[in-house]
Amino acid sequence: MTAVLLACGINPEKSILFQQSQVSEHTQLSWILSCMVRLPRLQHLHQWKVHTRSCWGGSSPAHGTSSGSSTRFQQEVWGVLSSARVHSQYVCVGVFNLASMKKVKSLRDPSAKMSKSDPDKLATVRITDSPEEIVQKFRKAVTDFTSEVTYDPAGRAGVSNIVAVHAAVTGLSVEEVVRRSAGMNTARYKLAVADAVIEKFAPIKREIEKLKLDKDHLEKVLQIGSAKAKELAYTVCQEVKKLVGFL
């Protein structure tokens, strides 16, 4: 995952990139929050509801863990979960310049955001996907029975999501994308968008492979980042411990 983040443009000189397992304060504060936040309160949170629906049963400390990360570092760092190897391969299309988009929507359910944890493998585009996989995902993307390419998020969410992705990867405005797609049916348009995404990902994938060859560099980036993160985390964690009466 370190190689993926660096290839996507994360600058370790400006951002702290570290391995969460090397910062014990992360676990400590997550435990404190998990103990103090009551289940009825969690059940009112949208994130908790979404997460528990994806779990097989029982409660999960994931929300406490996430809150712990945000609280500890005040969102100034990037954490790499050493125990979650699956994350090392997958970064969704959020790598695009999405200034004009609130979020990238699922290709299979345009009412939901695109997520790496979506059980439907066709719903999410990943940097590590092969060109063939990307083409298949856009070909299977949910649209509607109207063949014309238009942008109407309220009335045509599926097509509008694809148009927004197309605009993001090409740097064009939504209006310009629609104008250039005039006369093209949605089936053909999906393939055009897939080609644009493949082109966007190509240099990133090449950089990932290049970075993976220099493991010493990747390890050094994480070591430096972990030291910086621990320095920040220690101060915040001590303050929390004082507030709850541990110190």
**How does the overall form come out from the CA principal axes?**
globular
What's the SSE pattern?
HEHHHHEHHHHH
Integer-rounded radius of gyration: 21 Å
Count of helical segments? Answer: 10
Q: Strand order, main sheet: write it out.
A: 1-2
Going by helix content, strand content and strand pairing, the class is mainly alpha
Overall mean pLDDT score? 82
β-strand number: 2
Distance N terminus to C terminus? 36 Å
Fraction of residues in β-strands? under 5%
Please give a structural write-up.
There is one protein chain. With 247 residues, this protein is mainly alpha-helical. Helices cover 53% and strands 3% of the residues. It is built from 10 helices and 2 strands, in the order αβααααβααααα. A two-stranded parallel ribbon has the order 1-2. α2 packs across α5, α7 packs across α8 and α7 packs across α9. The protein is globular, with a radius of gyration of 21 Å.
Which helices and strands occur, and which strands form pairs?
Blueprint: H1 2-7, E1 16-19, H2 24-36, H3 39-42, H4 46-53, H5 62-73, E2 77-80, H6 131-139, H7 157-170, H8 174-180, H9 186-212, H10 215-244
Parallel strand pairs: 1-2
Helix pairs in contact: 2-5, 2-10, 6-9, 7-8, 7-9
